[in-house]
Design a protein that fits this description.
The chain contains two helices and 25 strands. It has two domains: 127 residues, no CATH class; 135 residues, no CATH class. It is mainly β and 317 residues long. Strand 5 and strand 6 form a beta hairpin. The strands form two sheets. The protein has a 15-stranded parallel sheet that branches.
Length: 317
């Protein structure tokens, strides 16, 4: 995938303030005052009513998938609790706004198709599948197809499939992301592109970022902690560029490039991995070995070898 100067310029620019209306989604039991829609289906109802440029404000509370919307794509169907199809919107969660898939119907938390969406402030947890291997895609966090998504301040946890997914001609621009205790944290396929600044991937039973086909990822200031099936993984003609980051406690390989893919790393701390790199396809500059000595938020402790080097997600704040 070739990233043009025009695309880079688009990514570099700040998201424009929403100029449209604000529709307010509230959880069941919230006072009626100020709520456009209430209940578990409030977010989808607000999206359906919204026009391009509108904002969906998600009030604090828990929203469970009692219904879903199917988004077909090629041979699969993304079964989404919250679906945005062909619209340009902002979905802004208040602190304490939770999409909880542990109750209700098996589904994917948020599905995007041919959409341009800004998502912030949501806690997405517990989304699960009905059948593990079929063409109905449930159990994902955010699944974007041929879309543009700006994501910030989002936590995705205890998901059964993929946390953040880009397929087709998707552009993902994410920061301050946490993907925890699930399966594949980030999955890029076909021609998807990811730019990520500031993230924690912890205790996932597969890769923090897995890139396939012609997909490309640029990762800065991330922490990959205890990935079970490689820390960063590239296959086919995919490329991953990673800098100012920690990769610790991962197995079997922290940085694994196969086929014609490549992983290029700079200013990395690698420690406690079963293996640091694959035999081919990985180029590194400025690796810091040894215990990085960081706290629970991956901030360097006194005497840490990464102190003052701008490494880790805390450096993005």
């Amino acid at each position: 995938m070739k990233i043009t100067l025009a695309v880079i310029g688009l990514l570099a620019g700040a998201a424009c303030p929403a100029l449209g209306a604000t529709l307010v989604a509230c959880p069941a039991g919230a006072p009626a005052k100020g709520c456009t829609f209430k209940g578990d289906g409030a977010i989808q109802a607000a999206i359906d009513k919204a026009a391009d440029g509108d904002t969906i404000l998600v009030r604090a509370g828990v929203y469970a998938p009692r219904a879903y919307r199917d988004l077909p794509y090629k041979e699969i169907i993304v079964r989404a609790f919250v679906a945005v199809d062909g619209k340009r919107l902002t979905i802004q969660g208040e602190k304490g706004a939770v999409l909880d898939g542990s109750e209700g119907l098996p589904s994917t938390a948020i599905g995007l198709r041919n959409a341009d969406v800004t998502i912030s402030g949501l806690d997405i947890t517990g989304f699960r599948f009905d059948i593990e291997e079929d063409d109905i895609y449930e159990g994902h966090g955010i699944f974007a197809v041929d879309s543009r998504a700006r994501i910030s301040g989002v936590t995705i946890s205890r998901y059964q499939k993929m946390g953040l997914t880009g397929r087709g001609n998707t552009i993902l621009d994410a920061r301050d992301l946490r993907v925890l205790d699930g399966h594949v944290a980030t999955w890029l396929y076909e021609g998807a592109y990811l730019r990520l600044d500031g993230a924690v991937f912890r205790n996932n039973d597969s890769s923090a970022v897995a890139a396939y086909n012609n997909s490309v990822a640029h990762l800065t200031r991330i922490a990959v902690d205890r990935s079970t099936d490689d820390g960063l993984y590239a296959e086919d003609d995919a490329a991953i560029y990673v800098s100012d980051s920690l990769i610790v406690g991962s197995k079997p390989i922290a940085l694994n490039a196969t086929g014609k893919s490549r992983i290029v790393g700079r200013n990395l701390a690698l420690h406690g991995n079963a293996g640091d790199t694959s035999e081919t396809g990985v180029a590194l500059e400025g690796v810091i070995a040894g215990d990085p000595r960081v706290d629970a938020d991956y901030r360097p402790l006194a005497g840490s070898p990464i102190e003052g080097k701008g490494i880790g997600p805390a450096a993005s704040h």
